[in-house]
Structure formats: C-alpha cells, structure tokens
Amino acid sequence: MASMAFGLSLATLSSTNLLQSHKKTTSISNLKSHQSTLPSSLLGTKVLISKTQRPIIRTCHSQVTCSVASSSSTLPSALLFDCDGVLVDTEKDGHRISFNETFKEKELGVTWDVDLYGELLKIGGGKERMTAYFNKTGWPEKAPKSEEERKAFIASLHKRKTELFMALIEKKLLPLRPGVAKLIDQALAEGVKVAVCSTSNEKAVSAIVSFLLGPERAEKIQIFAGDVVPRKKPDPAIYVLAANTLNVDPSSCVVVEDSGIGLAAAKAAGMKCIVTKSGYTADEDFQNADAVFDFIGDPPEERFDLAFCRSLLKQYVS
C-alpha cells in the first residue's frame, strides 16, 4: 500500500509556480484620512482596504448577505465557474473514491487517503496527479517501463476513474453546492454568458452540468475542460481560452473558484475572482482573491448574488 505519509510540496509537484500577490493593506480603523462609505449590505464583513485600491472583501459570515444592487454598474460579460469544489464538493467522496476503486480494480496496491489526496490536489489534473504521485513514490510493478507506455497507462487509469465518477454523478449521489443553480439562473436571465472551466475530464464535467444542473441550463453553458489546453491551472490558459472563445474581455469576467491554483489561474488571466471555500481548501491562502465566502448560498442563507458579482467590476474607492 502507498505510504500515508506522502509529503508533497507544490514546488515538486507542479512545473508552474502559483502566482502570489502581496498587497499592502491597512485596517479600516487606521484609515481616518481614507474613509469611504461601504454599502450597508457589507456591514459585518471582514474588509481590508488598500490605500490605492477598492476594498477587498475577504470573508462574509453566515448572517451577512453580500448583495450590491446598482443599476448603474456594468454586468459581467461572463460568469466562469470551476467545477470540482465549486459546483459540487466532489473531491473527497467523488474523485478520490473513484481513483481508489480504479487502483483496486487494477490491483496496483495503491490507496489515497483523505489527507494524501488533499496534498495531491495541489496539482491540477487527474492524469498529472497520478503521474506526479508515481514519480515520487515509485511506479507499480504492473506499470510499463517506457515513458510513452506510461502515458498510455495513466490515460487508461484516468478513463476508468472517469467512468466510475460519472456513475456517482448519474445516480445524483453528490449534490450541487448551495446557491450554484440560483447564481447561474440569475446570470442567464440577464444575458450574462456562463461557462465551466475545469482541469477535470470533459465527460465528467459535462455529466455534472447535465445531470445536476439539468438539460435546460446545460445547453446554455459552455464547457472548457480536461486537455483542451496544454497547461493546466495554475496556468491561466483555460481562462484565456474561455474569454477568447466567448469573445469577452477578461477584465469583464468574474470567476468562481475554490482553490489557490484556480485563483492564481483566474487572476493571471486578468479576471475578477470570488473564492467559495470547499472541504479541502478552507485553510488555503486566498490573499489575492477579490472576495472569499464559505459558499454561494440560497436564501435565507445566501452569501452573495449576481449583483455582488456586478459590483466587483466597479471601483469602490477612487
């Protein structure tokens, strides 16, 4: 069995370093000369204000709804969602279970426990994840020896894993996260383009969109997933592709992500990014995010809506 003490660092597992932004911020209480009136709906939030930029909303607590209704602000051109951890909290009880079932079927003697899989998620893409793991711990005896054969071996494992994962989705054993359908409906009703941008296999992402969001919504949502780009998150390629394909300006797009690598990809593409934390990402550093929430939420537990996404495209502080 694979070691449970598998220590993986992002530096050794991904060829692309996470982009980090270190902004100098000052507490509101110390900004007497920079005071500004915030919308009343943001009261109670933890807000950091840059001396030269608008407020950066880091956290909204359970009793606060962040809704900034302003008819004069510009709608996003596109609302772009990550899939795993954003639409559905799939990782621990979806993808991880499917990987382990695949390893068991192939008699590889490998099991990814909850903590180990959390470390592996620092690598974007399931095939990349398996390759990095085997490169670090040693390839199974049943694995081929040449690099080309190993690529085919990994691809076959990932194909079977995707089949098992899709069976879970089709049985609706993994529900949508709160507020996802609401926010998508608001965007579509306003003519905002909606897309899903994921490092996961395209068939798996399509299954989530089709089975959990329903065919009526699915036909209006464009999917960018899997190997549609050569470099995966934290590389911005998938978001750049989405903007180009949808014919929208990246600066007018709002992304909903749940992880540090997703946030880095969105910001590197020049987009606004809201983070909705998931089970595996709650303790990650989201300093560079435009806003951070525990989830989107439906009334009466709503955290934010399309009006809030719209507000991110405006400057609060001139």
What labels describe this entry?
318 residues; alpha/beta; two-stranded antiparallel sheet
Please give a quick description of this structure.
By secondary structure, the chain is of the alpha/beta class. The chain has eleven helices and eight strands.
Plain-language structure description:
The protein is α/β, with parallel strands linked by helices. The protein has 11 helices and 8 strands. It has helices at 10-13, 91-105, 114-120, 126-137, 147-170, 180-189, 202-213, 215-218, 237-246, 260-268, 306-311; strands spanning 46-49, 55-59, 78-81, 193-198, 221-225, 253-257, 272-276, 291-293. The strands form 2 sheets. It has a 6-stranded parallel β-sheet, with helices on both faces. Strand 6, helix 10 (260-268) and strand 7 form a beta-alpha-beta unit. The longest helix is centred in the middle third of the chain and has 24 residues, at 147-170. The protein is globular, with a radius of gyration of 20 Å. The protein starts with 9 loop residues before the first helix and ends in a 7-residue tail after the last helix. The model is unreliable at 1-5, 7-65 and 67-72 (pLDDT under 50).
